């Protein structure tokens, strides 16, 4: 945005900019009064959600979690392929990232469960496993179930007290339990 200086019509641009800036600052200040940053960073979360990075399902994922009554009650880790990203040998640093985040969510927010949300037509599954499973929905479900259950077993082995929920989302946002 180019600022205009001077008086008259050109001074109006600066006043409009300042008015917008002041109003935006007031909105930010009001937000911090309503929800202080300290309260957002402390407290408890119910679960850790692991989901895929696919931009097509960001809104659907948020809507699903809100619909489950978990709005602002979950920590969120995003890995390409979700369950596959957390267990694949191809990207061992992703495995470490998932386990580090899970440990932190337990220690920092006292989570008591993990929700793993894979999705259909996943590009990470195509690239990592070398096959497009979306052409056969039954086979696609089976392949996701293998990875989801593999991760569930590993979570239960390391953190016996955590509940683990396995989910598969369609591109329309419909979620099925595995």
Compact description:
The protein is α/β, with parallel strands linked by helices and 178 residues long. It is 52% helix and 15% strand.
Descriptive notes:
- The structure is a single chain.
- The protein is of the alpha/beta class and 178 residues long.
- It has helices at 9-34, 37-41, 58-67, 83-87, 92-109, 123-129, 137-158, and strands at 47-51, 74-78, 113-119, 163-169, 175-177.
- A 5-stranded mixed β-sheet has the order 2-1-3-4-5, with helices on one face.
- Strand 1, helix 3 (58-67) and strand 2 (74-78) form a beta-alpha-beta unit.
- The chain is globular.
- 26% of the residues are buried.
Cα separation of the termini: 51 Å
Helix content: 40-55%
CATH superfamily of the largest domain: Carbonic anhydrase
The CATH C-level class name of the largest domain: Alpha Beta
| Tally of alpha and pi helices | 7
CATH T-level fold name of the largest domain: Beta-carbonic Anhydrase, Chain A
Strand content: 15-25%
pLDDT < 50 stretches: 1-10, 17-40
Strands side by side in the biggest sheet: 2-1-3-4-5
Helix and strand composition category: alpha/beta
As for the number of domains, it is 2
Shape: globular
The arrangement of helices and strands along the chain is HHEHEHHEHHEE
Largest sheet features:
5 strands, mixed
Q: Care to count the β-strands?
A: 5
Known CATH architecture of the largest domain: 3-Layer(aba) Sandwich
């Amino acid at each position: 945005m180019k600022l205009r200086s001077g008086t008259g019509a050109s001074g109006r641009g600066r006043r409009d900019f300042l008015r917008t800036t002041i109003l935006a600052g007031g909105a930010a200040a009001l937000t911090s009064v309503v929800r202080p940053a300290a309260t957002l960073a402390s407290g408890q979360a119910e679960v850790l959600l692991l989901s895929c990075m696919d931009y097509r399902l960001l809104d659907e994922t948020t809507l699903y979690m809100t619909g489950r009554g978990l709005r602002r009650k979950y920590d969120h880790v995003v890995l390409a392929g979700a369950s596959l990203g957390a267990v694949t040998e191809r990207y061992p640093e992703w495995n470490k990232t998932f386990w580090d985040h899970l440990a932190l969510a337990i220690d920092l927010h006292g989570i008591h469960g993990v929700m793993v949300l894979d999705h259909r037509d996943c590009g990470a599954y195509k690239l990592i496993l070398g096959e497009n499973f979306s052409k056969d929905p039954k086979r696609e479900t089976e392949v996701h179930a293998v990875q989801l259950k593999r991760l569930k077993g590993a979570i239960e082995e390391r953190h016996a007290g955590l509940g683990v929920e396995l989910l598969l989302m369609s591109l329309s946002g419909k979620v099925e339990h595995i």
